[in-house]
Specification:
By secondary structure, this protein is α+β, with helices and mostly antiparallel strands. Helix content is 38%, strand content 19%. It has 2 domains: 29 residues; 38 residues, no CATH class. The chain has a two-stranded antiparallel sheet with strand order 1-2. A hairpin with a 5-residue loop joins β1 and β2. The radius of gyration is 21 Å and the shape is elongated. It starts with a helix and ends in a 10-residue tail after the last helix.
């Protein structure tokens, strides 16, 4: 009896995962736009990691976010200067 239940739970898990990824892949084909940036800076690949944080919403969903910066932003972060130089805020 335990094997049948385990088999049913495993099958339901596989079917659920396939259905989830099938729906998620439908959205990957469309054109996507950057959420916050209108233009990617020239030397963005040289940016380094400043901090990583986890944002949890009231509904239980969560996001992992990384804060990146160039050498000027890293120095300002270490010195505690806010807002960072060159920011629009």
């Amino acid at each position: 009896m335990k094997r049948i239940i385990l088999l049913l739970v495993s099958a339901a898990t596989v079917v659920g995962a396939v259905a989830y990824f099938a729906v998620a892949s439908e959205h990957a084909d469309g054109d996507s736009a950057p959420i916050f940036l209108t233009e990617v800076p020239q030397a963005f690949r040289d940016w380094r990691l400043i901090a990583v944080s986890r944002l949890t919403a009231a509904n239980g969903s969560s996001q992992l976010r990384a804060e990146l910066g160039n050498d000027i932003a890293i120095q300002a972060y270490r010195e505690g200067k806010l807002p960072f130089p060159g920011s629009s805020n």
